[in-house]
Amino acid sequence: MKKNQQAWLLPIAGTLLLATAATTPQPPPPLERDSPGATNRITGSLRFGMNIRGKFLNPGGGLNPNYTGGSSRRAPGGKLFNYDDGYVLTDISHNFGGQTWNWGYLNPGQVNESGPNTIDFHHVTAPGLPGEIPTGDSPYMGAEITYNRELGVKDNWHHLHYGIEAAVNFMPFDMDYANGVNTRLASRTDTYSYTPGTTPPGAPYYGSYGGPGFVIGSSPINSFTSFSGNANLQGRYDLNAYLWGFRLGPYLESPITEKLSLHVSGGLSVGIVDATCYWSETLIPAGGGTPGTTYGGGGDTQVLWGYYLSADATYQLNDRWGLDLGVQYQDIGRYRHNFGGRTAELDLSQSVFVQLGVSYSF
Q1: Is residue 166 part of a domain?
Q2: Strands of the chain, DSSP E
């Protein structure tokens, strides 16, 4: 009797074991590139940058109401004139008694122009000028080389790979703007007083912060603005920049199928911006007045710091070669520099990059 029971119990037990094995979740198969020793991967990618904005600030310079300096001239000590024909600034005593010796003027006619014991200072502005000129956020193309070093695999976590990722990339930028802006011209005159019975130094005169020197009132006793007509500002602005980027951070990679895997990473991002800028502006008064042209430019290099987050999918063609498609978010802040009187800005604080590349594992 016991032998008969064993005879039919054995097939039933075997059937139950097979059914249990078939229904137990199985971890994804290892990646095809998981051949012995394949712990390194190099990927070369084309890199398309988006949401990168450039702009030029305060076109017109001293004519722009948003510009902090009245002209490109500088007083002793390096501070900008706050008027077109002079300056009235704070001295070492913080203008004790309502007077300052940190002032200067350029033309003899400014003295007593509005009455005895006065000096007038003038500043022409163009209220219709915009505060900034955007250059758009067109896609830009660059390249990147990425190196991944695998540190280990968690087999009980669905063959999760982890390691360190390092990358170097390059992207050029060419941003330009050329257009005219119609505006009107406004002239502001501020009148300052000086002590009766004294005589100001002859023009041109440049007082200093430390003094001592001839003192005038530190605040205007009168101010008025007159409009002198319309004008057109023709401007051209060119910013050429090269961005060298470096990334370093940990990564995680999980197989989806035998050939397809998902890769995520994040960490430190560094950018070196090497820029040159050239600009020119011509103010053309309405009614046939004489145009005036100013221009400037220069070069500059800055280092920016930030972070990145990246996700990409890799399809293995065989145990060595694969195709990569990814997207990356990067924030390294804003690049800004004054190029001889006009400021250019490159916004890299919300950059998005799409990458398409080929990888080799070894």
Answers
A1: yes
A2: 40-50, 53-57, 86-88, 99-100, 103-105, 118-125, 132-134, 140-154, 160-193, 205-206, 216-217, 222-255, 260-285, 292-316, 321-331, 334-339, 342-347, 351-361
Q: How many structural domains does the chain have?
A: 1
Dist. CA 224–CA 244, nearest whole Å = 51
Tokens (6 digits) for 183: 């505006």
Residue 34 contacts residue 322 (beta carbons within 8 Å): no
Residue 138 carries which DSSP code? Answer: -
pTM of the model: 0.74
Q: Is the dihedral of CA 293, 294, 298, 300 positive or negative?
A: negative
Question: Could you tell me if residue 196 is inside a domain?
Answer: yes
Q: pLDDT (tens digit, 0 to 9) for every residue of the chain, 362 residues total?
A: 334 433 333 333 343 333 443 344 445 555 444 445 579 999 999 999 999 999 999 898 878 877 765 456 888 988 888 898 999 999 999 999 999 999 999 999 999 999 999 999 998 888 888 888 888 777 899 999 999 999 998 878 778 999 999 999 999 999 988 988 899 889 899 999 999 999 999 999 999 999 899 999 999 999 999 987 889 999 999 999 999 999 999 999 999 998 999 999 999 999 999 999 999 999 888 877 778 888 899 999 999 999 999 999 999 999 899 999 999 999 999 999 999 888 999 999 999 999 999 999 99
The first and second tokens of residue 168, run together, are 């170097």
Which residues neighbour 294 within 8 Å (Cβ) at sequence distance 6 or greater?
A: 61, 280, 281, 341
Residue-range definition of the domain harbouring residue 59: 28-361
- Taken as a whole, the chain contains a residue count of 362
In-domain check, residue 45: yes
Collapsed DSSP state (helix, strand, coil) of residue 209:
coil
Q: Does 21 reside within a domain?
A: no
